[in-house]
Design a protein that fits this description.
OB fold (Dihydrolipoamide Acetyltransferase, E2P); about 230 residues; single chain; five-stranded parallel β-sheet; Rossmann fold; alpha/beta; about 35% helix
């Protein structure tokens, strides 16, 4: 699932962006739109671990928390989201790119530019996104590795836990462990492998990924603690 956030204090602009997104991406199987009427609302979603967007359209001139402050918080929290700034002025264009903006759209030309930037984003996503090729329930799927939070093994099945869904398929942890280990994942238990950057709390027998508690075995604890402390 591709989750797209729209953060703008103007309802008319939020509605227009959402309409354009749905028009351009009408043939994409699963899309979810998250709307935020202010930077403060988005910041609260981040603080409550409720922000899980892949792409964010972010207005800059908002009160009391503007788009630049919101983008700074996103990057300080190491959230994996692409940002397209949508604003009425070129004043902050260069500062915007310090927050790794994918693009910068002026509202005066939004009718012409928005469609192009959405298409460009999807094309780059298709060209660069690393995926696991699996067969789930008889259907072949390409699951973007960037969306996986942790992997769980149960008998002969693996379950990929994404921020929006769980996908199960027949395989062994050893089949995908080498691939994921090179992309920011670590084994913490015979039955669990997880994304290191998502760990927010570690104890001797478990880790917390947001509000999810994952068991840690003695075999992996020492190595995990060393990596967690050096993040």
């Amino acid at each position: 699932m591709l989750t797209i956030g729209i953060c703008d204090d103007c309802k008319q602009d939020r509605d227009f962006i959402e309409d354009e997104v749905m028009k351009v991406l009408f043939d994409v199987d699963e899309i979810r739109i998250e709307r935020y009427s202010s930077g403060q609302e988005l910041v609260e979603a981040i603080q409550n671990d409720e922000f899980h967007c892949n792409l964010l359209f972010l207005d800059i001139f908002m009160e009391p928390v503007d788009g630049m402050e919101t983008a700074r918080l996103i990057r300080n929290n190491q959230l994996d989201v692409d940002i397209i700034f949508v604003t009425k002025s070129t004043k902050h264009v260069y500062r915007g790119y310090t927050y790794k903006a994918f693009s910068y759209i002026l509202k005066d030309t939004m009718h012409e530019d928005l469609k192009f930037e959405i298409q460009r984003y999807i094309q780059e996503l298709m060209n660069t996104e690393e995926c696991l090729n699996i067969t789930s329930d008889g259907v072949q799927r390409r699951v973007p590795i960037s969306l996986i939070e942790y992997v769980e093994s149960n008998a002969r099945k693996l379950t990929l836990h994404l921020n929006s869904e769980d996908i199960s398929f027949y395989a062994k942890m050893g089949d995908i462990e080498p691939v994921l280990a090179e992309r920011g994942f670590i084994r913490v238990h015979q039955s669990f492998m997880l994304r290191i950057s998502r760990i927010n709390c570690l104890s001797k027998d478990s880790v917390m990924l947001g509000d999810k508690k994952i068991p840690v075995s003695r075999k992996y604890y020492g190595h995990l603690r060393e990596i967690f402390q050096n993040q």
